[in-house]
Amino acid sequence: MSALLVHEHFGTQSLREAPEDLLDAYNMNKAMAEHYRGSKNAYEIWNEEEAGFFRQPADTFASYFKAAAIGISDGDSDAVKMPGGFGSTPENFFVRTLLRNDVMDYSDAYAYHNHQVTINGEQNRDFIESVARKHTDAARAYDPELQIWTTEAGISMTVDKNETPSLDTLISQARYYIVATAEQLAYGSDKSFWFRLNHYMEGGN
């Protein structure tokens, strides 16, 4: 695997919508896949579309995804394609609607995100397992042989935006990098990807 490419081709901070003509989605994704053909790439189409990164209904995204997935397949038959990693569990209305619109028929893997949180300095291991189990069950219900990828794993720690992480924080991050990989594989994932190695602030953490 050379790279996992995450793309929101038509998405910006002000406009996160599919093109009106799905042929545009097909043509662009086909061209991209042709350009990178032979690199053994995987394409995660969009990112956490249910969490506000896509501002149209789920059935609209399903149509966009299918056009994009067909384009990628026509551009590179060896490429792996999947919906943007779900940041919410399958009970989420958007995720549930996507699955009911048969997006997995156009996918080679089921992708989800699973981030650890710390509360008063303690990690919530039950939360991580619960999220993983729900996604694994949803993927297996569709196809017992479908690949399951955790395309974001990480741990949130409170650090003041004007400060650099302490040594203890850095050590905790480094340790969890190993733990997260083992956890996700143990809970059913076939591949696990770490979310950024640099110091990244989001929502004050």
As a whole number of angstroms, the C-alpha radius of gyration is: 17 Å
Proportion of beta-strand residues = 15-25%
Q: Helix/strand/pairing class, anyone?
A: alpha/beta
Low-confidence stretches: none
Strand order across the largest sheet: 5-4-6-7
List the total number of helices.
5
Main beta sheet:
4 strands, mixed
Structural account:
With 205 residues, the chain is α/β, with parallel strands linked by helices. 39% of the residues lie in helices and 19% in strands. It is built from 5 helices and 7 strands, in the order βαβαβαββαβαβ. It has helices at residues 22-36, 58-75, 93-100, 125-142, 167-186, and strands at residues 4-7, 42-45, 80-83, 109-119, 122-123, 147-156, 191-194. The protein has a 4-stranded mixed sheet with strand order 5-4-6-7. Helix 1 links the parallel strand 1 (4-7) and strand 2 (42-45). Helix 1 runs parallel beside helix 2. It is globular and about 50 Å long.
Features:
205 residues, globular, four-stranded mixed beta sheet, 39% helix, alpha/beta, 5 helices, three-stranded parallel beta sheet
Task: Please write out the topology.
Blueprint: E1 4-7, H1 22-36, E2 42-45, H2 58-75, E3 80-83, H3 93-100, E4 109-119, E5 122-123, H4 125-142, E6 147-156, H5 167-186, E7 191-194
Parallel strand pairs: 1-2, 2-3, 4-6, 6-7
Antiparallel strand pairs: 4-5
